[in-house]
TrEMBL record:
Protein species of origin: Niastella koreensis
Keyword terms: Signal
Signal peptide: 1-19
Transmembrane segments: none
Domain of life: Bacteria
One Pfam family matching this protein: Lipase_GDSL_3
Residue ranges of every copy of the SGNH hydrolase-type esterase domain listed in the record: 177-353
Protein name: Hydrolase
Domain SGNH hydrolase-type esterase N-terminal: 23-165
Length: 360
C-alpha cells in the first residue's frame, strides 16, 4: 500500500510538471498589433496590395515584409514559445538571420522596455522555437518584433497551459501618437543585429509612441504614389529619411513635388527631412563620396525653396549629426550597426520632439 501511495504521488508530480510545461498557443491576430500604417489584406504586411497598386514593383515586394510590426501581449507564463511561418528562406550578406527572419522579444519592466531574447531561425520556413523559459509567474507585458527582411504568413505565441495570454490592459505603446517614417534600408533596418534595433523600433520604445516603419530597402525614391499614400496615413509627424536611394537628379526632380504634395494634403502635420548618412566608404571611393554630397545638396535646395515659399512645420536634420565621426557605425560602409542605429535614434528624436512641441 505504501509503495502504491509513493507511485501515485510521483505520477501526480509528473502530471503537474507536464501541465505546467506543456504549451497552448494564441494566434497573434487575437493580440495587439503595433507598427502598422493601416489595415492590410494580409495582416503581417505593411501596405495593402490594393493601395500599393500604383507603386513601383520593388516597393510592392518590400511592403510584404514585416519590418517594424510588433505584437503586444500580457502573460504570466514562465515560458514563451513562438511558431511562425516564413514565405521563403532568405540570405543577406550584411544581416544576421535572426534580424531578417527571426523574432525579437522585449518586456516592459520598471517603466521601460527591456530586451529579453530572440526567436532564432532554423533552416526552413516553418519555425518553432522557445524564446525564453524559467521566468517567474508574475503578469508581464511583452512586445514581440517581427522580421525585418522577410514576411510572416502566420504567427502563434505559446505559453503554459495554466497561464493566461491577453491583450495588454494598459499598453506601453500609445497608438494614438504615431510617427510615420518613410525611407531606405536605413529605416527598414539594415544591418541591425535583431529587429528591435532598427532605429524606428528604438524610438518606439523610448517614446512610447507608435513608430511606423515604411522603409523600403534601395527603393525609397520619392515617387508620387508614395506621397499620395503617406498623405492618407494618420500621423502626428512624418519623417522623410529617403535621401540615400534616389540619385541627385531624382532628388532635384522629385523631392519638391513630393514634399509639397504631402504638406498640402496634411498642412498641420510636421515633416522632418533627414539628409542621407555619409557613407563611410565614400571617404575612399570618390564617386560614392561625391554622390552623397550632391544628394544632400539637392535636398537642402528643396528645403530652402519650401521655407522661402512660407511652408510651415518643416524641419531639417543634417548628415553630420547622424552617426558620429569615428567611422565605426556601419557594417559595410553603408548600412548601420546597432551602434549606428542608436546614434540615428539619438539624432532624430530631439528634432521630432521639437516638431511635435511646435505643431500648429
Amino acid at each position: 500500500m505504501y509503495k502504491i501511495f509513493i507511485v501515485t504521488i510521483v505520477l501526480l508530480a509528473v502530471q503537474l510538471s507536464y501541465a505546467q510545461d506543456s504549451i497552448k498557443y494564441a494566434d497573434a491576430t487575437t493580440l495587439m498589433m503595433v507598427g502598422k500604417a493601416k489595415t492590410t489584406d494580409s495582416i503581417y504586411q505593411r501596405i495593402d496590395s490594393v493601395e500599393a497598386k500604383e507603386m513601383p514593383q520593388a516597393v510592392k515586394n518590400l511592403a510584404k515584409q514585416s519590418a517594424g510590426i510588433a505584437i503586444l501581449f500580457e502573460t504570466n507564463s514562465r515560458i514563451i514559445r513562438a511558431k511562425w511561418d516564413l514565405p521563403k528562406e532568405v540570405y543577406l550578406h550584411n544581416m544576421t538571420p535572426d534580424a531578417h527572419s527571426g523574432l525579437d522579444l522585449y518586456c516592459f519592466k520598471a517603466g521601460k522596455w527591456q530586451f529579453v531574447s530572440i526567436g532564432r531561425v532554423a533552416p526552413g520556413i516553418n519555425q518553432n522555437q522557445i524564446i525564453v523559459q524559467n521566468m517567474d509567474s508574475s503578469l508581464k507585458q511583452f512586445m514581440l518584433y517581427l522580421p525585418l527582411y522577410n514576411g510572416v504568413s502566420q504567427l502563434q505565441i505559446g505559453v503554459q497551459q495554466n497561464a493566461t495570454i491577453n491583450k495588454p490592459t494598459k499598453p506601453a505603446v500609445n497608438t494614438a501618437r504615431r510617427i510615420v517614417v518613410y525611407g531606405s534600408s536605413v529605416v527598414q533596418g539594415a544591418s541591425a543585429s535583431r529587429a528591435g534595433m532598427a532605429y524606428p523600433a528604438i524610438l518606439q520604445r523610448r517614446t512610447g509612441f507608435d513608430w511606423i516603419n515604411l522603409g523600403f530597402s534601395g527603393s525609397a525614391k520619392m515617387e508620387m504614389p508614395l506621397a499620395k499614400y503617406l498623405a492618407t496615413v494618420p500621423a502626428d509627424c512624418y519623417v522623410l529619411d529617403c535621401i540615400p536611394n534616389p540619385s541627385p537628379e531624382e532628388i532635384s526632380e522629385r523631392s519638391y513635388p513630393f514634399i509639397k504634395y504631402l504638406h498640402e494634403q496634411q498642412p498641420a502635420i510636421p515633416i522632418v527631412l533627414v539628409e542621407t548618412i555619409f557613407r563611410q566608404n565614400g571617404l575612399w571611393d570618390q564617386q560614392v563620396g561625391n554622390t552623397v554630397k550632391r544628394q544632400n545638396e539637392e535636398i537642402r535646395k528643396t528645403y530652402e525653396r519650401l521655407k522661402k515659399e512660407g511652408v510651415k512645420n518643416i524641419y531639417y536634420l543634417e548628415t553630420d549629426k547622424l552617426i558620429g565621426n569615428d567611422h565605426e557605425a556601419t557594417i559595410d560602409g553603408i548600412h548601420l550597426t546597432d551602434l549606428g542605429f542608436t546614434r540615428m535614434a539619438d539624432a532624430v528624436l530631439p528634432v521630432v520632439k521639437k516638431a511635435l512641441a511646435e505643431k500648429k
